[in-house]
Design goal:
The structure holds two protein chains of two kinds. By secondary structure, chain A is mainly β. In chain A, 0% of the residues lie in helices and 54% in strands. In chain A, the strands form two sheets. In chain A, strands 2, 4, 5, 6, 9, 10 and 11 form a seven-stranded mixed β-sheet that branches. In chain A, strands 1-3-8-7 form a four-stranded antiparallel β-sheet, with no helix packed on it. Helices cover 0% and strands 54% of the residues of chain B. In chain B, strands 2, 4, 5, 9, 10 and 11 form a six-stranded mixed β-sheet that branches. Chain B has a five-stranded antiparallel β-sheet with strand order 1-3-8-7-6, with no helix packed on it. In chain B, β7 and β8 form a beta hairpin. The chains are: A mainly beta, B mainly beta. Chains A and B meet through β5, β9 and β10 of A and β5 and β9 of B.
Chain lengths: 114, 111
């Protein structure tokens, strides 16, 4: 398996524009996570899905952020409208099942909003 | 106060040194503890996982949990330049996937 695949790797956009980040989890993994990483706040869980159903979105910073998982092999994180403070590295991760299972991270998408 | 505190470093050590990386936490309900390693421009990868208190060893790495002090440690013996990375601690109370991460400690092992 190629691991968790994220696209794009880098995204530069202007404030106010819509941004869509994409993720393909590892086949067979039931859990999918979206994280945001900044120097100040570290790695923060935004939302996670179990079998394509959102379970906990309490980490989503505000209504400008939305995430979907239409099927087991694809998820998106959308920011609309984007703001400079959204600049961060966004990671998608997937996990096979139990709480104690390793989460396998993708390479991340480095988002810069100017 | 953050739930998990971690010194950001950077921590620079000579090759072969013993490295000690630490996290403190405030939530006494945390039971599951993980250490992730993150190389520059990469995603984190799991190094060690421990449950409750005690020690766990895996090769050159030892993870230690002291729940009474709310303190966890990762020791790296015979450190190598390839160990240069950011080390993140993560923890949860169990029954939830909402792991709380530290901000990471950047380690540099000098050849």
């Amino acid at each position: 398996d190629a691991g968790v695949i994220q696209s794009p790797r880098h995204e530069v956009t202007e404030m106010g524009q819509e941004v869509t980040l994409r993720c393909k989890p590892i086949s067979g993994h039931d859990y999918l996570f979206w994280y945001r990483q900044t120097m100040m706040r570290g790695l923060e869980l935004l939302i996670y899905f179990n079998n394509n159903v959102p379970i906990d979105d309490s980490g989503m910073p505000e209504d400008r952020f939305s995430a979907k998982m239409p099927n087991a092999s694809f998820s998106t994180l959308k920011i609309q409208p984007s703001e400079p403070r959204d600049s961060a590295v966004y990671f998608c991760a997937s996990s096979p099942g139990t709480v104690y299972s390793e989460a396998f991270f993708g390479q991340g998408t480095r988002l810069t909003v100017v | 106060q953050k739930e998990v505190e971690q010194d950001p470093g950077p921590l620079s050590v000579p090759e072969g040194a013993i490295v000690s990386l630490n996290c403190t936490y405030s939530n006494s309900a945390f039971q599951y503890f993980m250490w992730y390693r993150q190389y520059s421009r990469k995603g984190p990868e799991l190094l060690m996982y421990t449950y409750s208190s005690g020690n766990k060893e895996d090769g050159r790495f030892t993870a230690q949990v002291d729940k009474s002090s709310k303190y966890i440690s990762l020791f790296i013996r015979d450190s190598q330049p390839s160990d240069s990375a950011t080390y993140l601690c993560a923890m949860t109370s169990g029954g939830t996937y909402k792991y709380i991460f530290g901000t990471g400690t950047r380690l540099k092992v000098l050849a």
